[in-house]
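Lab notebook, page 48
Experiment: co-folding of the full assembly
Goal: obtain a model of how the components sit together before planning crosslinking
Operator: M.T.
Materials (sequences as entered):
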Amino acid sequence: MKRFATICFLMLGVVALATPAFALRISIAPDHGNPASPQMGDRLRFHTAIQNDGHATQEGVLAWISLVETDSGKEQPVDLEDWSAHKAVVSAALLPGQTVETIWPMRLIKAGSYRVVVSAMSRNGETLTASPFVDFTVRQKPVVESSRIVPVALGAPLFIAGLLIWRLRENRARA
Amino acid sequence: MNAVAIIARKEAGDLLRSPRGLSWLLAMAAALSAFSLLLISDAELSLLDNAEAVYGMCAVIMGLGALLAIVMGVDTVAGEKERGSLVPLLVAPVSRDRILFGKLAGIAMVWAAMYLLALPYLWAAGGAGQNLAEGLVSLALMGTPVVLGFGFLAMGMGARLSSTRSALMVCLVILLLAASPVILGPSLRQTAVGRIFDWINPLSVALNALDAVIIDSQAVVSQWLHWNLTLLFSGITLWFARDGFYRTAL
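Observation: model returned without errors.
Model output:
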């Protein structure tokens, strides 16, 4: 019986060593200066701390921010092109117990409900680590409407160009 | 019809009816269209409030108006002199003051045309927001003395230098200098020198008043000091133009 228990203990140890541990841990929090009810054009900041909870150094740690629209019927990942120029952070090595703190700025482009998450992976890690979600809602604000601008922006020069052509033809006819 | 009206109609008509003048207006409309399209296509600009968009549009309109007034102002004396059409005008039985005011009225009519051209653009940019009407009133009140002032300056410079190219060059450099706080951004205006320059630069004075009315929703009448400063600028440049015109020799 004692021998059987020893074998089981050894087998569990081997399994534990073979199973990849969640070495990285990410915490996320919105900045205290963020507006309580943000609207389009406002800027938000999120603070993350990526910590190596494992026993081995994590090499080539890459963390990136993702944004998802969560409005009913509009659920989709958001292309951060216009929202943020700071989309990822790289750390060459993260020693056991070491933490990398990052601030993620973001410009709010479109109204709606959103969920932000920061994910991280390392070169020698085997799983993706993600932060908890942070939800926020962006209020609509009155901005320039393209439906008004386009007809005027195209119509006015065309009208003057028409006048110019008519005047040139008239001058030619007189000559 | 009196001599002033005849000369004014001729000056303005040259711009508003001739292919040359229509080409200028077309260029102005194209510039306003380009700015309008930037407001909706550029991610940063598309997030501007309606009021900020109207303010930006007003600044562009005033800049283009000043540019047009400079070109016209230089042409009224130096251009006519180079073309040989100034002498017949000066020997006509009309006082120099009437000729001068006819030419000045021509510049004013062209600015009025520019203002009318800008109205649909301003409506398109700010029709859905606040302070559009106040913006239009402010643009008329502040923009008119500034634009006419640059026209008078160009006229006086053209009369003194007697060369279209030289006068145009000098006036464009002055306009560029006046527009530098707008081009270089607000940080330069925080310094003591920047603040002094802000108060003696007519373009800055007018733009600050427009900012206060359109963006900060202040009353138009609260900008009386700015308005008086722009009037002072146009008064000084009017004297400069009149003096230069009277010095113009046959």
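Interpretation: Chain B touches chain A through 32 residues (CB under 8 Å).
Next step: discuss with group before ordering constructs.
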